[in-house]
Write a structure and sequence with these properties.
mainly alpha, 8 helices, about 0% strand, globular
Length: about 160
Amino acid sequence: MKDIFDAYCGIYCGSCIIRLAYMQNRPESIPEPWKTMSKGMDLECHGCKSDHVYLNCAKCEIRTCAKEKHVDYCFTCEDYPCEKIPERDTSERFPHFTLFLQHRNLLKENKVTEWLAYQKDRYTCKNCGKLFTWYEEICHFCGEKVESVTEELKNAKNDQK
């Protein structure tokens, strides 16, 4: 089954907490609130645009809307921005989505290959070469410090001051 990591909303599915817990066989690594939401569910997922999607992502209203409107990304929709996006743009619960706003220009310029390469490199531990999730601060495999999305956003705010 083919992995497709560029989601309709613009996040990088390759470092999704659920996906990596499944791929790396470490479901115990799933933090709350996702741990409770995913209890007893099939964690296998190959990305938002793939044929095998984690159940909670399959029910995502953004995904459903984009598929119904036959758009590759929300920002290519004539109704963008809409009420489905702003709630997540400002939510502290979804910092990985907020980060998309800072990186979407490559997608808008139709440079999906470059964007995917950047994302894969960004979420690969420089020490051991393993992927880490959006929220990990320490590589699960080698113990090396890695930059989480939360830390990246905090650093970006500090740089703006």
